Amino acid sequence: MTGVLAAYDRLVASGELKPDPEQRGAAVRLDRLQEELEAAPPRGSLLWRIAGRKPDSPRGVYLWGAVGRGKSMLMDLFYDQLHIQRKRRVHFHAFMLDVHARMREVRKTESGDPIPQVAAALTQDVRCLAFDEMVVNNSADAMILSRLFTALIDKGVTVVATSNRPPKDLYKDGLNREHFLPFIALIEARLDVMGLNGPTDYRRDRLGDGARWFVPADDAASAALSAAFFRLTDYPPEDRANVPTLDLDVGGGRTLHVPKALKGVAVFSFKRLCGEARGASDYLAVARHFHAVIIVGIPRMGPENRNEAARFVTLVDALYEYKVKLLASAAAMPDELYVAGDGAFEFERTASRLSEMQSDDYLALGHGQDDAAGGPSLTG
Length: 380
Known about the structure:
- By secondary structure, the chain is an alpha/beta fold.
- It has helices at residues 4-13, 21-39, 46-51, 71-81, 92-109, 115-122, 139-154, 181-190, 202-207, 219-233, 270-274, 280-289, 306-321, 344-356, 360-363, and strands at 60-65, 87-91, 128-132, 158-163, 191-196, 213-214, 246-251, 254-258, 260-262, 265-269, 292-298, 325-330.
- The longest helix is centred in the N-terminal third of the chain and has 19 residues, at 21-39.
């Protein structure tokens, strides 16, 4: 059985990672947490009965830092090495959508505060809850987080989370933020907060210094985008047949099929994203869930494609607002994609954004880091 620290040290020894004291410090802490969780007696065991109560849950960890500093890599190591049955890893936004859906169901049959019931249901099969990319960008989440997480931790759940922000900057300048401050206090009191802000931006390194917008959308472009996907996800190309897919919840009981989805990176065809009846909520779900999106086969559009062009504008707005990294193959450069038809003049702003999204300054930004209290408006 391998520990987090041993797995991390092997990556450094093999040259896959550069030595980074902050990363190794986090690996040491996660290694200890792994040992604590694996050493805890099973639920309802003799040791529970002797003690007369369930054992205290190990203290959690909150890893924060700039984009590309290894937070997801460390979470991967921890979750993969953790040998317990009752564990769950989930993107924070998806978790909160699930929480709100559960609360609505409880309110259909009962009055009063639904959070205790929701927390009890969530803890039935979970001892360790691992969150990717904790970010709070709406008041509905902010109002319930303190009570929800207090209940989860009190019921024995150990929380591990990654975020681009330190706890004190979560929901910064948000509406009624004073009601959110107890959640910040809870994180700082019940989790070990560790910063990862070393000198190496691994994700930026994996994006490389070459092209990210490929014209034309031919076999060579597809090969380049495929190589970029495997670099970004650190997934072996020889196992390409087993890359996971995902049916992304976009709200309203609808889903969007993602043919390749791994470690926050998604691959779509233009036809899948913009050739079907999709709207802002669909594209916001994509932008929140993925830090990098690869789009294959963006066509040159004309008056007959005005619906596809309008959807593409909305998609780019969502990706831009959430600072999603975009790689694409297309029939033309951005300013030549849609030059005639309804909305062609407005499309110039989209072309400008697409060009900006290829810049080093844009690539250095963290995913979702500029979201405000209510999230992007998709109007600016």
